[in-house]
Design a protein that fits this description.
This protein has one helix spanning 8-61, and strands at residues 87-88, 98-104, 110-116. By secondary structure, the chain is α+β, with helices and mostly antiparallel strands. The protein has one domain. The chain has a three-stranded antiparallel β-sheet, covered by helices on one side. The radius of gyration is 26 Å and the shape is rod-shaped.
């Protein structure tokens, strides 16, 4: 009678090959968390730039219902406020001018955006 199935050697070879593949792929997946945190910080910076632009346009169209912006740290422009774990480096912005603002996120990530000053 002939037996069917894999031999012990064949199973060990497959396990070794899977181990080698896992060892080469693992560093790529570990590095993805830092890239994700950087992307999230850039996303918050983009949201702040967009919020400041929309607020600037609304303030120019009508002074009611929009906020005066004289500082980069205007996290109140975002609906729900600035996400936890993020801070904005304070920098004064004079009316009708721009300033480079910095968002600081988790794991020492940072991104810049252009703040628009409006009274």
């Amino acid at each position: 009678m002939k037996q069917k199935g894999f031999t012990l050697i064949e199973l060990v070879v497959v396990i070794v090959i899977l181990g080698i593949l896992a060892a080469t792929a693992l560093p790529k997946f570990i590095n993805m968390s830092s890239e994700a945190q950087t992307a999230a910080t850039k996303g918050v910076a983009g949201a702040m730039a967009s919020a400041m632009t929309i607020n600037y346009a609304a303030r120019k169209a009508s002074a009611t219902g929009s906020a005066a912006v004289t500082d980069c740290d205007s996290g109140s422009l975002l609906q729900g406020g600035l996400p936890s774990g993020y801070t904005i480096t304070a920098a004064a912005i004079t009316a009708e001018s721009t300033a480079t603002c910095t968002v600081n996120g988790p794991s020492s990530t940072s991104a810049t955006f252009t703040g628009l000053g409006v009274n």
